[in-house]
Amino acid sequence: MRHLLALVILLAGAVNAGAQTQSAAPQPGQVLVSGTVPDEATKLAVLTRLRDIYGAAMVVDQISIGQVATPANWNSYVEKLITPDLKSISRGQLKIDGSTVSIKGEVGSEATRQKIGAGVTASLNPTYTVNNTLRVSAADQSVLDTTLANRIVEFESGKAELTQTGRAILDEMAAAMKKLNDRKIDVIGHTDSQGNKTTNQNLSQARADAVKAYLIGAGIKGELLSASGQGADRPVASNDSSDGRARNRRIEFRMAQ
């Protein structure tokens, strides 16, 4: 007997790599987890880790329980692999097949690619094989990054209402997106760590939705945009200073394909 567990992360049109047939595609921002585990406790541990990171509503459970063989301490190694770093991956998949771990997808920078790969390897003992095929997003991503130019899309304090400055930046982003030949783009909202986690999650989603609506109004096709909120889970600066918190309250634009 052997074990096969596949996690499909933030993919539209994803395929369930842990089964014989295709799965329904998760919606943007969702995580689809499938495969066979030996018992209910293992299934619950995997789902709990994912729900803690992505939110319960964003995890699609397609795990089955069956008579499968697993390496020693396999359960604990799987839990160590499910970390917030996975949220840096778009169009990605983490596949754990016995003692073979494969990770693929797109990340925003070479530093992120190396960090995630090193983290996976460090979580496992030497008997595991790691196949890291993460890649840095291509040139179209740089169009978005250059246009945004590290600026923050501003909102009214504590609200999902864009300021005049925020709208001006989005006008520039819309112009840039029109040059990308109908490429799909993920609009991702982030907050700082102050306040309630659920409130931050909801605010980040509402702000991402507001940006999507504005871009549609600026002429971008709605089917090319997805909006998701990730709360305070992916800071780019320390939340210990006002400047750091301001940098963390941001909208991110990522190429979806």
List the helices and strands and how they pair.
Elements: E1 4-9, E2 31-37, H1 40-54, E3 59-65, H2 74-81, E4 90-97, E5 100-107, H3 110-122, E6 129-136, H4 139-148, H5 164-177, E7 185-189, H6 197-217, E8 225-229, H7 242-248, E9 251-255
Parallel strand pairs: 2-3, 5-6, 7-8
Antiparallel strand pairs: 1-2, 1-4, 4-5, 7-9
Keywords: Cell outer membrane, Membrane, Signal
Biased composition (Basic and acidic residues): 242-257
Signal peptide: 1-19
Uncertain stretches of 5 or more adjacent residues? 1-23
CATH topology of the largest domain: hypothetical protein tt1634
What is the β-strand count?
Answer: 9
What's the helix-strand series? EEHEHEEHEHHEHEHE
Q: Give a short account of the largest sheet.
A: 6 strands, mixed
Percentage of residues in strands: 15-25%
CATH class of the largest domain: Alpha Beta
How large is the count of helical segments?
7
Overall geometry comes to elongated
The Cα radius of gyration reads: 19 Å
Mean pLDDT: 84
Number of domains: 2
**In angstroms, what separates the terminal alpha carbons?**
36 Å
CATH architectural label of the largest domain? 3-Layer(aba) Sandwich
Helix content: 25-40%
Largest sheet strand order: 3-2-1-4-5-6
Structural class: alpha/beta
Structure description:
This protein is of the alpha/beta class and about 260 residues long. The protein folds into 2 domains: about 5-135, hypothetical protein tt1634 (3-Layer(aba) Sandwich); about 140-255, OmpA-like domain (60s Ribosomal Protein L30, Chain: A), CATH 3.30.1330. The chain is about 35% helix and about 25% strand. It has a 6-stranded mixed β-sheet, with helices on one face. Strand 5 (about 100-105), helix 3 (about 110-120) and strand 6 form a beta-alpha-beta unit. Helix 4 runs antiparallel to helix 5. The longest helix has 21 residues, at about 195-215. The chain is elongated and about 60 Å long. It starts with a strand and ends with a strand. Pfam families: OmpA (PF00691). It is found in: Cell outer membrane. Keywords: Cell outer membrane, Membrane, Signal. This is OmpA family protein.
